[in-house]
Amino acid sequence: MKYGMPTLAEFNSILENVNLAKENNFDFIELNMDLPYSLEIENISLKEYNIEFTMHLSEELNVADLNDCLRKKYLEEAIRQIKLGISQGIKKYNLHIDSGIYFTMPKQKLYLNDKYLELYKKALQESCQILDELAFKNNIQINFENTKFHDFTKEAIKIIGEYANLGFTLDIGHNEKNGNKAYSEFKKEHKINHIHLHDYNGQKDHIEVGKGNINFKNYEEVIKSNYVVIEVKEKNELIASLNYLKDLFN
After folding, report:
1. Distance, C-alpha 132 to centroid of its chain
2. How far apart are CA 167 and CA 189, in angstroms?
3. Under CATH, to which class is 2-249 assigned?
4. Does the model's pTM come out above 0.70?
5. Tens of pLDDT, residues 104-154
6. Annotated domain spans of the chain
7. 125 and 159 in contact (C-beta within 8 Å)?
8. Whose CA, among 1, 216, 237, 241, lies 20 to 30 Å from 201?
């Protein structure tokens, strides 16, 4: 088990995150590539910081977009970001299982990935094939994270599970918020390689660990065998969450 912290929006540089991580004995930092300062890795060497990094790819990169032109552009940018990480020695990468576009109908939301399921599956397979080859050639892990859970999400998990070098990031807060569906499906594939951890109180997630309703002991096995990003958003909550988890599991 290794505990990591996300790059924080309240900071303005990678160095500020490094200093906080070292002061509080975090094992690694997850670079969020939506933060402009994370793109500093194009011009600096992360090795000088003497701490491990993982990478959270930009959230808008829907590599299963139904528009094939957009899908290819998203995939191109995902690969660009991953190659930046490879050049810095990063081994673990995180990518969302995106919900895609939906129409708000009179009685429900209509997700186009459900309506056009075969097209969605084909798009995801084509991207997974390329990402799997990239992961194999560079000895890295590319992990897909559960966000919301839809009917098509089960199909996505099956497809991702077919590729030897692709796996899953279990987001425990998202899992609890969406009815504990992702965890059971991920376990079938035996490929949980990464954890995002935050609490959920029945209304709000990404809150300080210990301030919500989640029984983290239910996840003890996967927590203890993985890299765990404590995915809360502010410095004080992050430190308090780390201390809570160390008391709980150590």
Report:
1. 17
2. 8
3. alpha beta
4. yes
5. 999 999 999 999 999 999 999 999 999 999 999 999 999 999 999 999 999
6. 2-249
7. yes
8. 1
